[in-house]
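In response to a reviewer's request, we include the raw inputs and outputs for one of the modeled complexes. The two entities were modeled together in a single run.
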Amino acid sequence: MQQLTITPLAATAAVAFDPADLAWMLVACAMVLLMTPALAFFYGGLTRSKNALNTMMMSFTALGAVGIVWALFGYSLAFGEGSGFFGGAHHFFLAGIGMEDKNGLPHLLFFAFQGTFAVITAALISGAVVERMRFAPYLIFIVLWTLVVYAPVCHWVWGGGWIAQLGALDFAGGTVVHINAGIAALIAAYVIGPRKDYGRQALLPHNVPFVLLGAGLLWFGWFGFNGGSALGANTTAALAFVNTMLAPIATLTVWIALDFIRTGKPTAVGVATGIVVGLVAVTPAAGFVGPGQALMIGVLAAFPSYFAIRWRTRTRLDDSLDVVAAHGLGGLVGALLTGVFARQVWGGETGLFDGNSARVGIQAISIIATIAYSGLVSWGLLKLIGTAVPLRADRRAEGIGMDLPLHAEEAYASGEGAILLNANETVADDTVALSQAITARAK
Amino acid sequence: MKLITAIIRPDKLNEVLKALFRADVHGLTITKCQGHGGELARVETYRGTRVKMELQDKIRVDVGVSDPFETTAVEAILHAARTGDVGDGKIFVLPVEKVYRIRTGEQDTTAVTPVLAK
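The model returned the following structure tokens for the whole complex.
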């Protein structure tokens, strides 16, 4: 392994970067980072008030937990030189990441931009396990998942790995981010099992305005996610940017129409979900298709996700916030349609409409490979962690809600009956008793 | 007539409602409330400030019933609200002097016999 060295600035200052590229990518990086807090609001609003903090923490702490393993190991495994399957170790501990050129950007900025993707991908999975998974195993899972699932898949598709060599198109993360997280979510919901009240009580969103706020902020951040994936201030960025506006517009419209036709009443949670599904579906296609095709992708993506969500709620699969239907299925539809709609005149890559019928098959191979790898390894990781620590909180904690037993905080504390404690004062604490009960049960 | 007042856990409300409806008790009122029983206090921390939360969130269920329904209603609540841990709550049964139905002016047993809107 290469030793830890800071690249001296003087040695690399000779590389001249386009200031416009730099300016846009700095902003894009901040916009993608904002998507993780946005996801926290989206998910937090969808859960019950007694679990609001726990749910939002699952996204916010991904910034810390995933961010740090990305910096220390993940980036190197994804983008370091290696085989077709794994990157190398020579960028471990940020070694050799300085101001030299990487895809037209300072290497350091490229590393940070990719880091924001790794964080939100892991945070997406949390939607399938909220209101019952314990926090420590969740953190252990997303950290390990980032290293052994996200980083390799990212390497296959974007790091010059075997899927990239095959010629599969994934502009900003249809397979790497959305199918990958969607399948991990499916497995996690299955392994951890449904919430104790699932199917017996209505488990309603406690703050629909939060859900809309989150969806709005996600859309804003997504302009950085897709537009920034052009890695510069250029016409590809403009194309991806506009497509990121058009596809969700179409999905949102179709979603409202479906609500109208089915029940006569368009729903706010439906609007928020429609926006996210449209964004997910256009992600792999953003820089490869024209605006008309982006609208088509938005329209077509609405149907499978809409009906999958309706179907899922009648099954025993408690994918609580529908990560599989929105991200897994939306990503799958988007990745396939990228193979259909990619136009040489727009993005320089050919698809089915340009007569390249092999492209759809190649897209399918990349999808199947991601599903198989992510599903299998996610299952193994959860089983492994489950042998060491219990994955679920106990029923009593689930009844009280995760916020109090796991975090000793309330999202909406009234302050009534709260007695200030001195620094050294000890009292019998029910939150301690609860965690002891969980540990005792595990033994 | 009796007034049955039950203090229960919020997450047991749905089961209690289901049990009461199954026992043909349809008229009731619920209130969100806070109370203090035998449970351990919970210690919460906000930016280094530690507080002991003495009050627990509870739900108060008030049901007015005719005498023959007293046992059925009480048993329904007892069974549905129980977890076996300290903090499951209490049921109080009080005698009621007079009951009026506002819509019709009906009194007593007739007034607590549910009429379902069509």
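As requested, we also summarize the result in words. Chain B has a mean pLDDT of 91. Chain B has one domain: 2-112.
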